[in-house]
Amino acid sequence: MQVALVGITGYAGMVLYQLLRQHPAVDEIHLYDHKLIQNEKLSEMVPAFYSDDTAVQPYDPDAIMADNQLVFFATSAGVTSKLSQPYIKADFPVIDLSGDLRLNDEAQYQRWYHKPSAPAQALNQAYYGLADFHSAHGQNYVANPGCYATATLLGLAPLVKLDLIDPDSIIVDAKSGTSGAGKKPAQSTHFTQANDNLQIYKPNQHQHIPEIMLELQRWNGDVKAIEFMTTLIPITRGIMSTIYAKVKPGVDAAKIDEAYHQIYDDKLFVHYSGEHLPDIKQVVGTNNCHIGVVYNPTTHTVMADSVIDNLLKGAAGQAVQNFNQMFNYQESSGLELQTFLP
Amino acid sequence: MQVALVGITGYAGMVLYQLLRQHPAVDEIHLYDHKLIQNEKLSEMVPAFYSDDTAVQPYDPDAIMADNQLVFFATSAGVTSKLSQPYIKADFPVIDLSGDLRLNDEAQYQRWYHKPSAPAQALNQAYYGLADFHSAHGQNYVANPGCYATATLLGLAPLVKLDLIDPDSIIVDAKSGTSGAGKKPAQSTHFTQANDNLQIYKPNQHQHIPEIMLELQRWNGDVKAIEFMTTLIPITRGIMSTIYAKVKPGVDAAKIDEAYHQIYDDKLFVHYSGEHLPDIKQVVGTNNCHIGVVYNPTTHTVMADSVIDNLLKGAAGQAVQNFNQMFNYQESSGLELQTFLP
Amino acid sequence: MQVALVGITGYAGMVLYQLLRQHPAVDEIHLYDHKLIQNEKLSEMVPAFYSDDTAVQPYDPDAIMADNQLVFFATSAGVTSKLSQPYIKADFPVIDLSGDLRLNDEAQYQRWYHKPSAPAQALNQAYYGLADFHSAHGQNYVANPGCYATATLLGLAPLVKLDLIDPDSIIVDAKSGTSGAGKKPAQSTHFTQANDNLQIYKPNQHQHIPEIMLELQRWNGDVKAIEFMTTLIPITRGIMSTIYAKVKPGVDAAKIDEAYHQIYDDKLFVHYSGEHLPDIKQVVGTNNCHIGVVYNPTTHTVMADSVIDNLLKGAAGQAVQNFNQMFNYQESSGLELQTFLP
Amino acid sequence: MQVALVGITGYAGMVLYQLLRQHPAVDEIHLYDHKLIQNEKLSEMVPAFYSDDTAVQPYDPDAIMADNQLVFFATSAGVTSKLSQPYIKADFPVIDLSGDLRLNDEAQYQRWYHKPSAPAQALNQAYYGLADFHSAHGQNYVANPGCYATATLLGLAPLVKLDLIDPDSIIVDAKSGTSGAGKKPAQSTHFTQANDNLQIYKPNQHQHIPEIMLELQRWNGDVKAIEFMTTLIPITRGIMSTIYAKVKPGVDAAKIDEAYHQIYDDKLFVHYSGEHLPDIKQVVGTNNCHIGVVYNPTTHTVMADSVIDNLLKGAAGQAVQNFNQMFNYQESSGLELQTFLP
Q1: Burial B47-85 (b: 16+ CB within 10 A, else e)
Q2: Subunit contact B178:C192, Cβ cutoff 8 A
Q3: Does the pTM of the predicted model rise above 0.95?
Q4: Could you report the per-residue pLDDT of A61-73, keeping only the tens digit for each?
Q5: In chain C, which residues fall in CATH 3.30.360.10?
Q6: Using only C-alpha atoms, what is the Rg of chain B?
Q7: Which of A250, A299, D91, D312 is least enclosed, having the fewest CB within 10 Å?
Q8: Which of A118, A147, A153, A156 is labelled catalytic?
Q9: Where are the alpha helices (DSSP H) in C297-339?
Q10: ∠B199-B234-A228 over CA atoms, to 5°?
Q11: Which among A11, A185, A236 has CB closest to D186?
Q12: Which CATH superfamily includes the segment(s) B148-310?
């Protein structure tokens, strides 16, 4: 199996490349970059890989389809929205880690991403690959979910699917490390600014909100909106999504516990730990999501603490999980990772 | 003016000592420690002050009252609860930075602090010194508020006092740096564990909850309970209290904005910045609380972002503010501090 | 192959356990703890492994030898010095990650470790397993090198072995993250103290100095002493050993470069990168040592920058490397790790 | 007293502005920026000062000289080199925090700063204001020393001035926090890259080397060169300069101790602490330099640990110290700062 990877210079691409190098079914990884006009060495393009002289090739869809059986895009928003045609036409397998194919409506994309969307045909064709809930087998055009979306949807799923909460009461206080903001240097992720600091950003405006809403509404049409805050935390990797909701009358701690068990006991990569509230270190380095839940009978509020590694389960790891599903590989292929402890 | 300080070995005591050294009305600071049986040099007791050979004296209430006009206690919970008698009897001014005098009920203290409370007389005598809302002038026995309590109460005050929110809907997602957990080493604050991590702790069990409830109920009897989560963040100093509530019918962004202006425009140490959401660096090194507020009309939810330096406004700074009020000094005496930027 | 691991509660033990779980030749890992008197669950003993209910058994040398083919000790200094007898007597394979067997002289151990040494017989029997330089094959009693020692020896080897430097001029300015200081909480590794700080400790007194000297003298008898400073850095994992020495007359940049190539070009886990100076992130998560070297012709000084992950190459990784050598497994078995990027 | 400040958008300018606001002799601070063409509010230009609406004016030397008695430049290298003429001509007091006036040779500047130097006249006119060693009184054109230079020169002074060390043996392993690298975002100071990392940069090429050499040679002509390494550390503020040198025959610990006492016992802002090795937290927030020294008789090597706050003693604090000297204010005016503890 030969796979193509476009976008090795970003964090998600770097991590995906490392995963694919250890994937038992992947024989060769071909790297492409849409800014190149001739081959360049990986060691020159990404200093962190200074001992790896693999060639990075200019982006060329024909070459990609000729030399590979699938292409991963780990590019920024706004790139794959313009590149969909040849792959759709050829029905060639794509996994896109950017947000470009996650929404199904051109106007919505424009509103949240502030740039033109992919053509409607591409948006309609795309499949939202929340890998722990539905299999990408049979899909050829997979939109890999966003990091905040993954942590939040996995934390909310039992409550929403089993209709345990007031659908108007969902509040998400999500925290992310700086690698989630990408590799391009900026004031907010300058060490001097980010260190010893907490910074709320994009209040109720984060571009992962609409993909969360789409999936929640597939699960339960009563959910019309959520409150969604994102805070930048001085850590490199990891997301904690702290989720609050009022329960419906008659719901108690036992019913909530049962719901999480029901939904997650058979899922390989989601671990429900009851009232044990996971910290971020529990999952960094792995494709796991850990979830702890506390119910407060005085306020009738359930709090779910859902943690993931934003670059693995929130990006490259889930992409490999989707890849495994598409090609019927074992679910854990290439994902037998150990928590990065301590 | 001579002042006594008991508890120089903890973080709040260290910071308070530094503030008092620069206070224009304070001529001498006498240090006492209840673990000593003879004088010891500060440089020996607190390595961080290795160039300061000031004597630390054994704790002795008679000596304290003879040589000073006021005593600050910057001791752990469970210390001042046992030491109240002589000061109350002598009507000698006390400012207590611990939680021992903040509640007015013995059973409540026992429940939240897991140790015996101060005598009922002491609890009743004590005055809760939330310095930006009521003056400690005329008070002799001041309980200095907790750090989480200060950030949360200041963030909530306009909403609760002016009755803008559903009293059953308050959710507080509060984040604190490690200095709030005290100087005693522990697994959760070990650098190896705290770095690159977020750790939720004491869910709905933090001991600052009851003092918040007491003050909220003084402001608005309709508030019966709050959801209160505390997360340990890898920063040294600072608290961000992110507060969510559903507004009452008819309340909109303009009314909320007006309320914050009404309550805070004349307050020296509280700065309301509208929709500009303050980060923690804005206040570290100062006695200020900065508050930004965003209203989401879709979810009818108001979010307030309230930040303080936990060791200043959340401890030593507010103690000096109470001290200034008690003795009718200028409000900013000893508190003309600059934000620790960048 | 069954292996025993004593000391799962410390950082090196935790990481070793994770490596062994993925080692293709290891069928079962039996955990033992010398503080237990009956079996306990790993999830109870080490909260970080809360989803792993593997039994930890009380320490019992007979059981260990009956049920396993080798024992790893990842215990603190002072433990294995008392436990050597049964294994030596039975000629049972041991890999000891503590410092107890690294020196060959009882008085030296006592001087640097401030506690009684292992019996002389054990010290003499022990083999110093600097795995990139000599194979542990045929050895049964292996002392795994210290983290600072590994980074420093690998950085110095070409200069010392090929006699390129003035033997009296070696200065090592070594920096370590806090995980090197162990899991027991202490003031110096309290987040509040370690964060935003650099702390020099044990100047010229670090217990890894004598094992470095022993190995250097095996390589080149002219080296009589080194200057060795250790600084605690606010990072979780990683060591950078910055090494300075005056070169001998006639030595220039080309000769130095040639020496590093000569020594390291065929070594799997040591990567010499010429004048590219590796940062710590290059090696964290792997068993690699990366070394960059700059020669300053004005000061006749060579500077080597040697970086490792203190818990892998500096502890558990090198232990697995020694294990592979002892049992003739492939050198990279269980060590095909990816750099933890970004 | 009215003072002008050019360069409020950088870190040194931000800190200098805060110091000047509390300086008892400064009545007004006028802000200027050479990128403006009309007035702008400080709150707009520097988000960290969002509650300060002070006007920032376009750069205009005539206005500056008309409205002020002195101008501080806190601009990047390459700015003041072009702006010297009007001030020199008018003999108007200047304190320049950039490196543009620190060297006395055009070619040297060009070599180390990679840009054209100030005119020779300006270089000759400029006075190197190492404030703890010589007074700027009577000087009108002051080059404020660099941060690395200050920490290193203060650490070395007693050894070099009193001729205690082999002049060819000086090795400086200097570590700096990210604020020293300036406010402009870059890959090396991106939080994701800098956190959990150590990065050596500009080996023997740092632009502070030539100013260090100039001052050392004024003190002791035998010093011809130094080895000088700079490592970027994941902290916001602070420099630790770890200095090594071989002593001359006959020099021992007592003589070294005596030398440091002789040089520093009467200096207000330099604190020599003997064998107590200061950590960075001891000085952050102050204009102090703390120095600890350990002599190793086995290697005949002295190690000095010199720490400063790079933005205060290494920039804005020393600028105020020079200002105080120029105008005969008390040495500590505006610099009565407390260590930022814990």
Answers
A1: ebbbbeebebbebebeebbeebebbbbbbbbbbbbebbe
A2: yes
A3: yes
A4: 999 999 999 999 9
A5: 148-310
A6: 20
A7: A250
A8: A147
A9: 317-326
A10: 65
A11: A185
A12: Dihydrodipicolinate Reductase; domain 2 (3.30.360.10)
